[in-house]
Every structure is written in structure tokens, then in C-alpha cells.
């Protein structure tokens, strides 16, 4: 199979499931399982902590012994088995435990696929932005389809959509994968020079990582509370899906042309992303209306996509192949999980006071990022 097509297909189906999980899981726990918003915030936060542990320690360790293809297959199978246990669960405790275990498997699919992408990009076989845009398309399709299904049935359909899409992902693993992703890691690949500790000794990497931790963490309230926020504004379920899709449509537009920005400095891309994120969260707080939220969605292409592309571009150019799984694991754990978990707790507390505050509270990460980038970009030449 063509490498670009393989990567695009895997991004598409994974982010289809990601669209179900990220946008509808909190709503399903509230409407389908009868939990309170504060309980859902705690469950999702615990899930993010479990995700951080898995992607920081378990995923990089497994990647040292298993080929990328085998690792993806095992993670898909584990995710399906655990998802099925949600069916009989109804108590707060059981849902908390299942979500914790589920988060040890399912989210690790993201760094696994991203690691495969960076390997293929280093080999010069694929354009990252082009394939990653198919992931965003899958996210859009999921949000649109699930919104329609919920409007016909109810929030309980969200779980079944997740199960079906994971089975489709399992079937996709039967397709031939690129040869480089079938290679078994060797003993040399596990030597100390390629350890997690040595990764942090690479000049500039800890700084870049810390900046993206701040920027990606600031998306916590958006991911966890947007669905509920729009419900509180009186938006019908079908239209919620359309509104949430706006952000990803602009993300697709950026990623499909992301290579145009490849000649820009990493610090320039990160600075633009930090400013855009700050404006986005202040806008939602200042103007608590559907139209203000819709307008803020256009900034997702900068506040998320540009920051993500900047990090991927950086590690692809700077890191050796053997360090890519470590970098993806620590990025997923700290930037996409742990930082978001901390701000999910913070956002849930603020949401109970006033919904708009949950979004304004995210600038405690974005404003420091702006000052840090400005202060270090010339010193570290990134």
C-alpha cells in the first residue's frame, strides 16, 4: 500500500473515534449515565492522568520491543475489550475505574500513529500535514454523524458508535503497512544513548516541550466542556455538532497547507499559536453567546494545529529516529494529557461558578507561554 495512503487512512479512522471520545464522552456520561458535571470533570481528569502515565512510561517502553504495526494492533484490541465493559456499568465508581483502565490503552494509539508518521516523514515518503488533515476530516465526519444519530436516538448511542468505529479500526489493521513500521526494534535501539533521560539532554527539547505543554493544556476546558456549554446556551444537539465542526474545518485548512509554513522558525509558529489561544479564551468569556463561540472556533487552526505542527516539525528535523517514540510519548503524556488533566479540574471548578470562567481560566497557561517564547527564542535559536 502507498505509504501516504496508509497513514491518511489510519489518521482518519483514529480521529473518527477521537471525535466521539473528545467531543461526546462528557455529554454521554452526563445524559446517558446520569452523572453530574463535577463528577464527569473528575472522571475525565483521572482519565487524563492515566493517559499521561501510559504514554509517558508504558508506550515508550513497549515501543522499544514491538514494531509500530504490532503495537497499534494490541492497543486497538485492548481498547475494544475495555469499551465493552462500559455497557453494564452505571455507578460512579465503576465508570471511574473503567475510564481509568480505558485511558491506559486507547489514547496511546495517538502517539503510536504519530510516531509512525514521523518515521515516514524522516524517510521522505510522506507529507505530514496532508495525511494529518485526513485525521481532522475524520474528526469532522464523526462529530457530524454522531450529532445526527443522537438527535434521532439519544446520548446512549455515543457508546455504540465508539464500539463500532473501534472495530472498523481493527479491520483496517489487516491492511499491509509500510515496511519501516514492521521493523522490530533491536538491542542497539534500546541503549542508553536513546533513553528517555538522554532525550531531555538534547539542547532546546525541554524548552520546546514545556511551551507546547502550556499551549495544548490550555485546550482542556474546550475539549471537556464545549458540548455542555453550548447546551447551556440553548443550542440544539444537531447544531452543536455543526458548531464544533467549525474548529476542525479550519484545522483541516491549515494542515492541508502546513508545509507552506515549514520554513518559519518553530518559535514564530509557537508565538502565533499562543497569542491566538489567549484571544480565543478571552473572547468566549467576554461575549457569552453562540456567535462569539462560533467566531472563536476559527482560531483553532492556530491555537491547536499550528502549535502541534511546530512540535512535529521540530522533532522530525532535530531528533534521531530512535528517539521519536520517546518524544511522542512524552508529548502525549505531558502536553496532551497531564497538563489538560490539571486544567480540566480547574475548568470544572470554574464552570460551576460561571461557565465562561472555565475558558478564561485557560490563559493561566497561554500568557506565560507568550512571555517565555519571546524571552528565549533568540537565545536558543529555535
Describe this structure in words.
It is a single chain. The protein has one domain: MFS general substrate transporter like domains (Growth Hormone, Chain: A, Up-down Bundle). The chain is built from 17 helices and no strands. With 382 residues, the protein is an all-alpha fold. The protein is globular. It has helices at 3-31, 37-63, 68-84, 92-105, 109-122, 128-152, 157-172, 196-199, 205-217, 220-232, 237-256, 266-286, 290-297, 300-318, 324-353, 355-360, 363-380. The chain is 77% helix and 0% strand.
Structural class: mainly alpha
How much strand?
under 5%
CATH class: Mainly Alpha
Count the E strands. Answer: 0
Order of helices and strands: HHHHHHHHHHHHHHHHH
- Identify the CATH architecture: Up-down Bundle
